[in-house]
From TrEMBL:
Disordered as annotated region, ranges: 53-110
Transmembrane spans: 212-230, 250-273, 294-313, 325-344, 455-475, 481-500, 521-542, 562-581
Keyword flag Lipid metabolism: yes
Highest taxon of the lineage: Eukaryota
UniProt domain Tudor: residue ranges: 4-62
Protein name: Delta(14)-sterol reductase LBR
Taxonomic classification: Eukaryota, Metazoa, Chordata, Craniata, Vertebrata
Organism: Cnemophilus loriae
Stretches with biased composition (Basic residues): 76-97
GO MF annotation list: Delta14-sterol reductase activity; DNA binding
Enzymatic reactions: 5alpha-cholest-8,14-dien-3beta-ol + NADPH + H(+) = 5alpha-cholest-8-en-3beta-ol + NADP(+); 4,4-dimethyl-5alpha-cholesta-8,24-dien-3beta-ol + NADP(+) = 4,4-dimethyl-5alpha-cholesta-8,14,24-trien-3beta-ol + NADPH + H(+); 4,4-dimethyl-8,14-cholestadien-3beta-ol + NADPH + H(+) = 4,4-dimethyl-5alpha-cholest-8-en-3beta-ol + NADP(+)
Length: 614
């Protein structure tokens, strides 16, 4: 095993990936397994570099760079050395043989070609991301990350120097010169540039309590769902009244499991229909972009038509209520089997397709968080499908079944006002998610988390059976509210929805097109990645305004259930804990990604979710 050469905290010179340029960096850590150094540039950017890409500062001698305005005769006599020339050139005055000269010239050509092809990678940010200051039309009011601009300026400087070296050492024929000009023009227009492939690294920082925490959660999450559903079935669902455990044979029904499979396959068929536009997701670590078909809203319309046909033929939809516990167990069993399949197939997946947060090397942890980032069967993306289809639409169908069950159990001609509010609020939330389906492609679930037990159980079990807890509670514990109270709750939900939707739309529109005239009044901080961090609008109010809107809506969903028991408020309590934990994960990842720019953003926007509180 090779010994480590550079120590943590040591300041060295690191080669920028894909180029021959070295910059001053600081070693932060070393991976003994992958033999990679994690280094930090002055602008806060962190990269993993091989030992061969790092040199000590003493190996670099400072030379006075030659002016580009020097005459050809002066250049030929002084022979100043540029960064793009081969470091192996003999000292001045030494005679070379003809063979050595030819080899040196070939080395020069090769180095120049590699540099000219590598530079576009350094500067080929999208115009809409890198030149957002110019697009906004407010150069004076736009915040700017000075460090990132200096880095970009340093990366652009070798452009003229390469051109000079090509002119000075050109020994090709006119035909070769023509090819050279074509390559140079391709570099300028950013055509045919091979993206940088990051070396895969092991997950160093374990979340969710590490191996022990994830092992406990594999059992704790199903037990929580079972406990909540049993509590709702009791006449007195107080915390001190622990429900008795049901017989194991009563929790399983083959017919119920068959209905669940039929539902899952129906949604898969709708997902595969060639309707809706096809869009590209965010770039992966190897630069590749996956394609996704956006047809979730069409699938919802088709699902509503199927449910309407079943009701027309007098299908008893409250069958879901009568076998609710068995449906939850069936979904849990299916999600467990799916998680096992996902982990087994991930063992054969290429390194670049593994999830950055689920590649620890520990079986339990990777099984829970998800080892593979985007598992696909052909064009069928398993994670993206489960994110919005079976569970989210199942949530709406369950709510409708609870509404019909309430009318049947209590002999009502119309559902109660509380049940109508819960169904209406949550239906709006689901329809909004499906209408803005493309926005999910930028979420942490898609871009960072692998598809394992955590997301499989969450999408297929937790969302439909825990998020519908208020409707399930109202069937056995009817609550009467007045119209003024209902109006106040409706206003509260509308406020939460407005914050949630406008904040997300503001962020997504800025990511797509910073030049949009509607966003001209927004200020932002530029980052070394070429993206901007909004410091005005909703994102200048708090760092996660969409989370604030989510929590307000969650409270509005629980209020129609009254205040007799805390059980209907489990969702809002859980949601606050979830979003605070997710905000902490976001904070950690953004600090690593944006460096000093994120620290500046946190100074300008000090509150995370709740203004003046947290």
């Amino acid at each position: 095993m090779p010994s480590r050469k550079f120590a943590d905290g040591e300041v060295v010179m690191g080669r920028w990936p894909g180029s021959v340029l070295y910059y001053e960096v600081q070693v932060t850590s070393y991976d003994d397994v992958a033999h990679l150094y994690t280094v930090k540039y002055k602008d806060g950017t962190e990269l993993a570099l091989k030992e061969s890409d790092i040199r000590s500062q003493s190996s670099f001698k400072h030379r006075k760079s030659q002016s580009s305005s020097s005459s050809p005769s002066r250049r030929s006599s002084s022979r100043s050395r540029s960064r793009s020339r081969s470091p192996g050139r003999p000292a001045k005055g030494r005679r070379r043989s003809a063979s050595q000269s030819r080899e040196l010239k070939d080395d020069k050509k090769k180095t120049i070609q590699e540099t000219s092809l590598a530079l576009p990678v350094l500067v080929s940010f999208k115009p809409s991301e890198n030149n957002t200051k110019r697009y906004n039309g407010e150069p004076e009011s736009t915040e700017k990350n000075d460090t990132s601009c200096i880095i970009l300026e340093q990366k652009l400087k070798p452009d003229l120097e390469i051109k000079r070296v090509l002119e000075q050492y050109s020994l090709r024929s006119r035909k070769d010169d023509k090819k050279k000009e074509e390559i140079y023009s391709e570099k300028k227009t950013f055509v045919a540039v091979k993206p940088i492939e990051k070396a895969p690294t092991k997950t160093k920082e374990l979340e969710f309590g590490g191996r022990i925490g994830t092992f406990m959660m594999i059992f704790f999450l199903p037990a929580t769902v079972l406990y909540l559903l049993l509590m709702c079935k009791q006449d007195d669902p107080s915390l001190l009244n622990v429900p008795p455990l049901p017989a194991l044979e009563s929790l399983w029904d083959g017919r119920v499991f068959g209905v669940f499979l039929l539902w899952f396959l129906l949604q898969a068929v709708f997902y595969l229909l060639p309707i809706g536009k096809v869009v590209e997701g965010l770039p992966l670590s190897n630069g590749r972009k996956l394609q996704y078909r956006i047809n979730g809203f069409y699938a919802f319309i088709l699902t509503a038509a199927v449910i309407g046909v079943l009701l027309y033929f007098q299908f008893e939809l409250h069958y879901l209520y009568d076998h609710f516990m068995q449906f939850a167990v069936s979904a849990a069993a299916f999600s467990l089997a799916l998680s096992v399949y996902l982990y087994v197939r991930s063992l054969k997946a290429p390194e670049e397709e593994l999830a950055p947060g689920g590649n620890s090397g520990y079986f339990i942890y990777d099984f829970f968080t998800g080892h593979e980032l985007n598992p696909r069967i052909g064009s069928f993306d398993l994670k993206y499908f489960c994110e919005l289809r079976p569970g989210l639409m199942g949530w709406v169908v369950i709510n409708l079944a609870m509404l019909l069950a309430e009318m049947k159990v209590h002999n009502l001609s119309v559902p109660s006002l509380s049940m109508i509010l819960v169904n209406s609020f949550q239906l709006l939330y689901v329809v909004d998610a499906l209408w803005n389906e493309e926005a999910v492609l930028t979420t942490m679930d898609i871009t960072h988390d692998g598809f394992g037990f955590m997301l499989a159980f969450g999408d297929l079990v937790w969302v439909p059976f825990v998020y519908s807890l208020q409707a399930f509670y109202l069937v056995g514990h009817p609550t009467t509210i007045t119209w003024p109270v209902a109006a106040a709750i409706t206003v509260l939900n509308c406020i939460g929805y407005y914050i949630f939707r406008s904040a997300n739309s503001q962020k997504n529109n800025f990511r797509r097109n910073p030049a949009d005239p509607k966003l001209a009044n927004l200020k932002f901080i530029s980052t070394a990645t070429g993206k901007g961090l909004l410091v005005t609008g909703w994102w200048g109010f708090v760092r996660h305004p969409n989370y604030l809107g989510d929590i307000i809506m969650a409270l509005a969903w629980s209020l129609p259930c009254g205040f007799n028991h805390i059980l209907p408020y489990f969702y809002v309590i859980y949601f606050i804990c979830l979003l605070v934990h997710r905000e902490a994960r976001d904070e950690h990842h953004c600090k690593q990604k944006y460096g000093l720019a994120w620290e500046r953003y946190c100074q300008l926007v000090p509150y995370r979710i709740f203004p003046y509180i947290y």
